[in-house]
Amino acid sequence: MTIREMLEAHPQPTSGDLDVIVRCIETCIDCAAACTSCADADLGESDLPEMVRCIRLCLDCADMCDATGRIVTRQTASDAAVVRATVQACVTACRACREECERHAEHHEHCRICAEVCGRCERACNDLLASMD
Amino acid sequence: MTIREMLEAHPQPTSGDLDVIVRCIETCIDCAAACTSCADADLGESDLPEMVRCIRLCLDCADMCDATGRIVTRQTASDAAVVRATVQACVTACRACREECERHAEHHEHCRICAEVCGRCERACNDLLASMD
Amino acid sequence: MTIREMLEAHPQPTSGDLDVIVRCIETCIDCAAACTSCADADLGESDLPEMVRCIRLCLDCADMCDATGRIVTRQTASDAAVVRATVQACVTACRACREECERHAEHHEHCRICAEVCGRCERACNDLLASMD
Amino acid sequence: MTIREMLEAHPQPTSGDLDVIVRCIETCIDCAAACTSCADADLGESDLPEMVRCIRLCLDCADMCDATGRIVTRQTASDAAVVRATVQACVTACRACREECERHAEHHEHCRICAEVCGRCERACNDLLASMD
After folding, report:
1. Smallest Cβ distance to A43: which of C40, C44, C52?
2. From CA D121, how far away is CA D133, in angstroms rounded?
3. Do B81 and A64 touch (CB under 8 A)?
4. Is the ipTM above a cut-off of 0.95?
5. How far is CA B61 from CA C1, D81, D87, D100, in A?
6. How high is the pLDDT of residue C15?
7. Which of A40, A58, C87, D94 lies at 20 to 30 Å from B84 by C-alpha?
């Protein structure tokens, strides 16, 4: 992904630790895509009725990760309270989605991968929150 | 907007008080549009350099309201923790955007309107949070 | 919705016929919400396996209407080719979603409503395209 | 990015050439992030009034790439007309954004990078369109 290069070329000083910010953005972007794909893969499974909660939480997580990736990307005139509340909501969405995907990880490889990506995103978001204190 | 009719036609019982949920969704949708328009109107103003923080917070608020509107709309297999964290982040984004827009409300009518819409969305989100306790 | 007031307060002249633009934005926003809700309602239906294509097309239509609503909302430095291609893609997404929802309109009221909203959005988008020639 | 692994784990056969689809999704995702960042970097530049068209086209391109990345990611019950119209609109948005960013590439490194990413996304989208014929 090009986001690190973009932030290095930004005219304003980064709003915090560049490595931590880049990892948060990259995992949000990756997690949004994985969740969009996992919800769609669930729709193609033969045990579809058992996957309803997984689809729902993947759709929520994709929407929250998309918004968080965009908001954390922006470095001009950042509002720390907005960034913090957004990243906290993203942690909650990733955790709920990861826990549901883990329940299906043994029989659906896409759920196993999606749970892993959600876990990575949770950690990267928590690292960003810790760095903001 | 059609969202009330849609939720009334939903096969599952609504996850809470229908009026409160509908008002939260409708104000999120309206606020996302107002913020997208306000950021764009700012770009056309002659005092553009003074509007940078307003543009930034409008873009964040639009993204957060979009995600919140979608997540609160979904009624199947809702996760209360995800809904709550999302709506809280939306309140924070609306408040920051409203406060900045209020600073420009006297000389830019679009900021005055946008501040009002953000305030309505804040209240509707807080009402939803109160109804979930 | 507040979008008409916002566009009337915009510092730049509107990029075309205000009524046509406002109707396009409002129906895109309404259609995005209806499609998000219809996909979610489908997930709660007992004939879920028959609703897979409906869910898929509702998710696509919601994403395309969201992007189109945002792009048509922006009035500063518009690029007519971008607006036109976006609105055309929105027409295609609405038509596909409407046709699928119509197939389920008799047994699912949310599909009947969603098909109607998609049809309105199609027409409003086509009206905008016609006004741009 | 994890999207290739996710598509390989999908229960349904891919709707076309996997390599071409993955490259289209990955460049859409990367381009959405680069454009979000470029619009934000423009807001921090001292020649901000000259960057208004660049900001506008970056915001449009980010929205269109986000929608396209999501729609191309979905493999269940794909509608070829919807995919084609979406990807065509994405090509148009990327081209307009790339041409504007190229005008600023010499004095703003973030515009040079963003123009490159838009060009890659344009080509990946055109490759997907060619593979669908």
Report:
1. C52
2. 19
3. no
4. yes
5. 17, 33, 27, 26
6. 81
7. A40
